Q: What sequence folds into this?
């Protein structure tokens, strides 16, 4: 009985440790990324340019097959975002353009429409695979939970501009079609044909496009 009690206490302590464990609080004001040695810049050498980015006022080039462009402001563009866990993007969509189904493996996204009418949606995980979607107008806000597949589509005759914030300095992007049909090397066409329940020749045609 005593051994069982001791084991239960040990498991409880272990659970508490895992539950409350998290990244330690920052011990400094900032850690500007130094791309030369993958460490923090000397704080004495940090400049305002390490925390700033110019470009979100410039429309992205939407003259492409999907009719959209994303301009990122992540740690790649702003070294001062390093360790701060936040970034943002500008999304431009031509009439009826799409930001195709994709996911951010490291971030939740909150989006607001600056101009136009925008259909947004995300799909819940298995087994429900429920589509939650809405048409947003100027000033509306929508949240895409971390890791879930989501998309945006311009449903108007004018351009759409949206700004989104993400809860990671480097949220990552996995575009579903690109990942599945454009992997290097290719995923076997037999596997994809069975997964999508289509003829193998159709899969090969799509892979050829990527």
A:
């Amino acid at each position: 009985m005593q051994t069982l009690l001791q084991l239960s206490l040990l498991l409880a302590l272990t659970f508490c440790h895992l539950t409350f464990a998290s990244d330690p609080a920052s011990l400094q004001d900032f850690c500007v990324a130094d791309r030369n040695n993958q460490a923090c810049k000397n704080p004495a050498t940090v400049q305002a340019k390490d925390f700033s980015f110019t470009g979100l006022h410039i429309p992205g080039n939407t003259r492409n097959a999907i009719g959209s462009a994303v301009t990122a402001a992540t740690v790649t563009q702003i070294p001062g975002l390093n360790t701060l866990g936040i970034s943002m993007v500008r999304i431009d969509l031509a009439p009826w353009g799409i930001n195709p189904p994709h996911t951010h493996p490291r971030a939740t996204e909150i989006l607001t429409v600056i101009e136009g009418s925008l259909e947004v949606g995300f799909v819940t995980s298995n087994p429900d695979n429920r589509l939650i979607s809405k048409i947003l107008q100027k000033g509306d806000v929508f949240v895409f939970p971390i890791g879930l597949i989501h998309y945006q589509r311009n449903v108007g005759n004018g351009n759409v501009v949206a700004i989104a914030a993400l809860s990671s300095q480097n949220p990552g992007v996995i575009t579903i079609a690109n990942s599945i049909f454009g992997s290097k090397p290719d995923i076997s066409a037999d596997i994809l044909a069975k997964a999508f329940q289509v003829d193998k020749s159709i899969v090969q045609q799509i892979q050829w496009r990527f």
Q: What stands out?
A: The two ends are 63 Å apart (CA to CA). Confidence is low (pLDDT under 50) at residues 7-23. Residues 65 and 97 are 9 Å apart (CA to CA).
